[in-house]
Amino acid sequence: MFEQLSDLSEYSSVKENLAWTVVRPRQARLTVDDVVRRLHGEPDTMTTDRPADCVSDLEYDDLADTVFLEQRGDAVIIVGFGTATAEEEALRRLSQSATVHSVFWAINNFNRLYYIVDGVVVTELDMLRPLDRWGTAPEALTDHLDALRDLHDRSGPGPDWETAMATLESLTAQRLDPDWFARPQLLAKVGRSHHRGRA
């Protein structure tokens, strides 16, 4: 997928920075608008763009608060190339009356996989060191971590973020593919409205 994304875009930062989050409501329906509000964005200002184009066109600082979203049944998919959904505080907000699974990695290989429910971090781990886990139930994801553990046990060149994405797919039954990045998706600027005063 990463090779195909490089072909789609002159500059593809997916190998360097990606945050992919799946939010599922536990009771009432959760919409893209709800998710954008939880991320301190304004649903009325959403636009559409192809993620592959956006990564090429935007400066890194602009990417930090840009997210792409899609409603898939009762789930909302969020993809970003910056920190908007990489921070635990934002993920806790997203998980109110919901279940959140999220992976992210940054250019310096800092990374996390989160499983958060109702504002509580159930499991958090470093995907390069999957035996190091934190949260209220550190072993909750054990059955889904075989590939990451196998990768950790092998000595090889660099991190394998493809395995990180496959792990989230196994946890959520949701999938991202190159075509998703090539199609227009909802785009929101988030993390801003809480800085502004309200009338």
Would you mind describing this structure in some detail?
There is one protein chain. The protein is an alpha+beta fold and 199 residues long. The protein has one domain. The protein has eight helices and nine strands. The radius of gyration is 16 Å and the shape is globular. The termini are far apart.
Secondary-structure map:
Layout: H1 2-8, E1 18-25, H2 32-38, E2 47-49, H3 51-57, H4 60-63, E3 66-72, E4 75-80, H5 88-94, E5 98-105, E6 111-117, E7 120-126, E8 129-134, H6 146-153, H7 161-172, H8 178-182, E9 185-189
Antiparallel strand pairs: 1-4, 1-5, 2-9, 3-4, 3-9, 5-6, 6-7, 7-8
Pfam family, one: DUF6461
Tell me the major beta sheet.
Answer: 9 strands, antiparallel
Going by helix content, strand content and strand pairing, the class is alpha+beta
The average pLDDT value, as a whole number, equals 85
Number of strands: 9
- Percent range for helical residues? 25-40%
Give the CA-CA distance, first to last residue: 46 Å
